[in-house]
Amino acid sequence: MMKLEYIFSFFKSEKNYNIDQLDPQPTNSIEYGWSWILQSYGEFGLFLIFYLSMAILYALSAIVFYFFDKYKLFPKLKLQITKYPSSKDIKRCINNLVLNYIFVILPLGIVSFPFSKVLGMSYDLPLPSVWKFLFDIFLCLIGEDFFHYWMHRFFHTPWFYKNIHKEHHYYSAPFGFTASYAHPVEVVFLGIATFAPVLIIRPHYLTFYTWFVVRQLDAVLTHSGYDIDIFPFNFMPFYGGTSFHDYHHKEFTCNYGSRFTYLDKLLGTYKEKSK
Questions:
Q1: Are 218 and 62 in contact (CB under 8 A)?
Q2: Which residues fall within 8 angstroms of residue 3, CB to CB, at 6 or more apart?
Q3: Which residue, of 1, 2, 122, 141, is most buried by count of CB atoms within 10 Å of its CB?
Q4: Nearest to 195 by CA among 112, 136, 125
Q5: Do 260 and 105 form a contact (C-beta atoms < 8 A)?
Q6: Tell me: the pLDDT tens digits for 111-159?
Q7: Are 180 and 58 contacting, i.e. CB atoms less than 8 angstroms apart?
Q8: Nearest residue to 199 via CA among 119, 256, 88
């Protein structure tokens, strides 16, 4: 039987992250905090911190929209004004999310951890500049959207839709919690699409982990059911926003992109709600 020590050896770091011995030394509070976490918890501990941050941010942002629905706070921003989730809808969705996060998303992250180390990605200082960090996040947004578009169209082929993707379309009027509501097989495919741009650009681990948090937040926003112009993503070119994806859930056969509209417009699958 394979020893547990051998299994966990894949997650151990061969590096010494003692702050006093780092070269170069941290030059700002963010670098110091990054180094302190690595010194205190190691590389795998840092991964778990970001995983928990992603899950907590997902839950908190979805809860905000839950209260929007529960108390009908902003009806003018609601895209499908006559459709609000019931308690039964929310319970079904959360049960699915808990199972997906524990048995699919967490294992995928654990598998990607040693794999990303093979790619040569770095934990080292200095951390990327603000512009490098933002540019790499933007490349991940573009790359994931490209892979997501083609996977999503594949999800809508007859067999795959009937047996896999139909689960995600259980809610024709999505709400925040439904962002990751899906069949486990679909969650794996979407995880591959999220990881694919990382394989290409191989960013710093700070960017890598932040990207996964951004991806989850973006998914909650586009499934929220509320078209709010002040969302930071709305200022990006070709960003479809909540209305773009909400209309996909309503009509099914259009708007396959994850967030951007350019591929749908280029390939004739773009539709918008008539005003």
A1: no
A2: none
A3: 141
A4: 112
A5: no
A6: 887 777 788 888 999 999 999 999 999 999 999 999 999 999 999 999 9
A7: yes
A8: 119
